[in-house]
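Hallway conversation turned thread

IA: we were arguing at lunch whether anyone had actually written out acetyl-CoA C-acyltransferase end to end. Turns out nobody had. So, for the record, here is the sequence (472 residues) and right after it the structure tokens. Reply here if something looks off.
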Amino acid sequence: MNFRYASLLGRKSNCLSVAAKTVEYRPLSVAAAPQAKPSKSSFGKNIVLVDGVRTPFLTSGTSYSKLMPHELARHALLSLLQKNRLDKEIIDYIVYGSVIQEVKTSNIAREAALAAGFSDKTPAHTVTMACISSNAAITTGMGLIATNTYDVIVAGGVEFMSDVPIRHSRKMRALMLKANKAKTLGQQLSLLSTFRPAFLAPELPAVAEFSSGETMGHSADRLASAFNVSRSEQDEYALRSHTLAKQAQDKGYFTDLVPFKVQGVDQVVDKDNGIRVSSPESLAKLKPAFVKPYGSITAANASFLTDGASACIIMTEEKAKELGLKPKAYLRDFLYVSQDPVNQLLLGPAYGIPKLLSKTGLSLKDIDSWEIHEAFAGQIIANLKAMDSDWFCKTYLGLSEKVGSPDLNKWNNWGGSLSIGHPFAATGVRLCMHTANRLIREDGKLGVVAACAAGGQGVAMLIERYPGATAD
Ligand SMILES: CC(=O)SCCNC(=O)CCNC(=O)[C@H](O)C(C)(C)COP(=O)(O)OP(=O)(O)OC[C@H]1O[C@@H](n2cnc3c(N)ncnc32)[C@H](O)[C@@H]1OP(=O)(O)O
């Protein structure tokens, strides 16, 4: 199948102009032998990604819905040890991400590690950085290794959208706290008289920006509109994502996925369940999900609410050799970016990728594998247009000219968050593992992971295939 990717055709946006370009897409093609410049570590020592795993990513409200988040995380952590036949005693430290926290397990890193049977002598802490939380877990681990604090780190993340905390209203909470302290019947009755039925309206959580109150979907719709990304371009990109994910799933490329026998569910969960290849006609019929009635973001060209967990193990190359382990990749470099969370909320890749390339002395053509988080199809296309715009790159990145457009034949070749799913804090490890495994299968050398996150933040990471690595 050939995809003719039209999003970079020379349409004039109201805020930027984009060069005319049509890119032929050859799914799952094997790249030519890598010619990229050799890379080196910025950390004074080589840090390797030995392996990583994830639970199948499931649409929220499906087979995981009766679990608690630490149980999902437990499965990822335990499977990581089992798959790699690792002795739990070798793990020095655990860093784990979570965005929407279960209040009972606020340090979910520790609770999941204890539940998974890690040594109780292994410290663990939880990080949160919205959709890049497990990237933050990995890079926190890299920092601990680089500073010689520890040698062996487990990093990962979990998100559980099937059961999010729904709170009483502030007024109801205040009343309940006061009632808890009331000592006499008189005090209790006096408090009761202040109760109003309106207090019972719950506070429902939203996938929204705290500082502006705007949902991610609404912001993505504005971003798509600012970059003149049409509805059909978004649907075409979404279809590409689902088609490629289905192909990769059918070919057994998702070797990071560890099947899960969920208690109370008859069948073993062994596949991501959000991958759905539709026709362009059925996609075109869907109504806008956020900006109604004229928005362009729908349920099919947005990432969906997902349950899932991931975990990976990183260490010094020296330690991996000592333990006789076969790493997948070197973790070469990373950086974070942040900008205005109102108008530039989801442009993390457009800011992070050029900065990473400049920091590492690489150019777009040196990269054999791009794994970029797909929050929304419109957001991805806006990021591509931004990087291919002289105006954007001069105005916002301070460059003398545009960065250009990455080779889309090397872009998210196994689908992405739109199709595989996006359990917020688990996605970063999935991106790193797909990069590492794609570099192996596609015979590449260097891969870039990039993602946007709530708060207007973003990450970019450089990964290099480890010599002799296998994609199992
Ligand atoms: C940096 C960041 O990553 S920010 C975080 C980004 N992610 C988000 O913010 C999450 C955004 N997503 C969401 O909030 C939700 O998934 C929504 C609001 C878009 C959609 O939620 P829902 O309405 O519950 O979706 P639902 O699964 O019911 O789908 C709605 C309709 O679209 C249809 N649909 C969904 N996906 C597809 C598809 N791939 N192909 C065809 N039809 C589809 C469904 O069948 C359904 O049709 P129906 O109404 O006829 O039954």
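OS: looked through it. The pocket of acetyl coenzyme *A is lined by residues 131, 207, 216-217, 242, 276, 278, 282-283, 286, 289, 299-300, 302-305, 346, 375, 422, 452-454 (CB under 6 Å).
IA: good, adding that to the notes. Residues 3-39+214-253+332-465 form a domain with the Peroxisomal Thiolase; Chain A, domain 1 fold (CATH 3.40.47.10).
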